[in-house]
Design goal:
Layout lengths: L9 H6 L2 H40 L2 H10 L21 H7 L8 H5 L2 E5 L6 E4 L28 E2 L12 E2 L1 H17 L4 E5 L4 H10 L19 E6 L16 H9 L6 H9 L5 E5 L4 H4 L4 E7 L2 H10 L3 H11 L1 E6 L2 E8 L5 E4 L4 E6 L5 E8 L3
Antiparallel strand pairs: 1-9, 2-11, 3-4, 5-6, 6-8, 7-8, 9-10, 10-13, 12-13
Length: 384
């Protein structure tokens, strides 16, 4: 008997006309096709949903969100890329940073800026050997060692330009200038007084610190520390009378500096202000909350890094670590942005036969990223 007639008795099927039999076969074939299509649609839907959920779970922002959500409900919001609202009970903190957004990027998102991604290269070919590498965007972490440690003679004494924990603290000139501006802005805003707790470290000093600090998630071994550049700055609020502002401090030990850091969790109004305003002076919070899987270092609300204003703005605006920013630069090629009255063009370049392209009509700087690429930053003033 034909399989299409399985549900009909033999006698009934035999007495049917040929036209009726044909119609039944057609309907059953159509029903089978619909069932097959439904199964295919269901499988495709499940695949799409699983792919979407997987992608969301494994983006850096989502990772941070999961880590941030694990904090206790009653705890204060920590500085970094947390999206949770503050519940500190401090009205000043609430008014300054709002209750619905992160303190680390509010001012960057509120800044008058226009952004356009572009990979169009500059017009002038230049020999890489003829250009000065500022090193302000060099990546140094557990996977990227410093290849050319700057000499101590290239650093500037931080004291007496800014309050410091120790007289021997030195910084890269660009980093020191940024910190001077940042501290002046803090005084003007009435936020409080800060001091530099640490700056440039040579190989020997970093080796001694690495040996003495028990918690290795907050310190890199010698050769892998940003402090070798003088661009990394540990900044802490002065909670008592700021003697360092008027009197030269005595030298502090690594243990004393570490104890100051341990007292910080990013929740105080002073720390929140630092994280929110640092980008305006070309500084970033280098190790934000929830990014340890990316940076290799746990949350450090005191550790800032000088990168330059357009780069600091972009990282604050998009909530990126330096690792993520450089990865995005390699992928997208660059961008143009106007911040206030200054227009910036930033491009990522990999030299070919020792040649990179720079603009012929604008001032510009170049910095290697420690991965074979270079970031060219060009700028011009817009109006008066």
């Amino acid at each position: 008997m034909n399989r299409t007639a399985n549900t009909i008795s033999s006698g009934t099927w035999e007495t049917m006309s040929k036209a009726r039999r044909k119609e039944i076969r057609r309907r059953r074939a159509r029903a089978q096709q619909l069932r097959t299509l439904r199964r295919i649609f269901a499988v495709c839907f499940v695949v799409v949903v699983l792919s979407t959920v997987t992608a969301m779970l494994w983006t850096p922002d989502r990772v941070r969100g999961r880590l941030n959500s694990s904090t206790s409900e009653g705890s204060a919001i920590r500085v970094g890329f947390s999206s949770r609202s503050a519940t500190t009970g401090d009205s000043k903190a609430s008014n300054a940073f709002g209750s619905d957004s992160s303190p680390s990027n509010d001012s960057a998102k509120a800044a008058k800026a226009t952004l356009k991604h572009s990979s169009k290269r500059f017009d002038k070919a230049a020999q890489l050997s003829d250009l000065q590498d500022t090193g302000t965007l060099v990546l140094i972490n557990g996977d990227h060692k410093i290849t050319d440690m700057p000499p101590r003679t290239s650093m500037d004494k931080a004291w007496p330009s800014v309050p410091v924990a120790s007289q021997d603290i030195e910084l890269h000139p660009k980093a020191l200038a940024a910190v001077v501006e940042l501290f002046a802005a803090a005084r003007k805003a009435g936020t409080g007084t800060f001091q530099v707790n640490s700056g440039f470290r040579d190989h020997a000093k970093q080796a001694a610190l690495y040996k003495q600090i028990a918690n290795k998630s907050t310190v890199q071994p010698p050769g892998n520390s940003e402090h070798h550049t003088g661009l990394a700055i540990d900044i802490v609020p002065i909670l008592s009378t700021p003697q360092g502002a008027t009197k030269a401090p005595q030298s502090s030990t690594p243990q004393q500096q570490s104890s100051l850091h341990e007292a910080l969790d990013g929740s105080s109004p002073e720390e929140r202000w630092l994280a929110a305003e640092a980008w305006q002076h070309g500084l970033i919070l280098r190790y934000p909350l929830g990014a340890q899987d990316i940076t290799g270092i746990s949350f450090e609300p005191w550790h800032f890094r000088y990168v330059g204003k357009p780069h600091a703005w972009y990282m604050a605006q998009h909530e990126l670590t330096l690792e993520e920013y450089l990865q995005q630069m390699r992928k997208r090629g660059g961008y143009d942005v106007t911040i206030g009255k200054r227009s910036y063009s930033v491009r990522y370049a990999v030299p070919k036969n020792g040649v990179v392209y720079v603009p012929s009509d604008r001032r510009h700087t170049l910095s290697g990223d420690n991965s074979g690429g270079y970031i060219i930053t060009a700028w011009k003033q817009m109006g008066k």
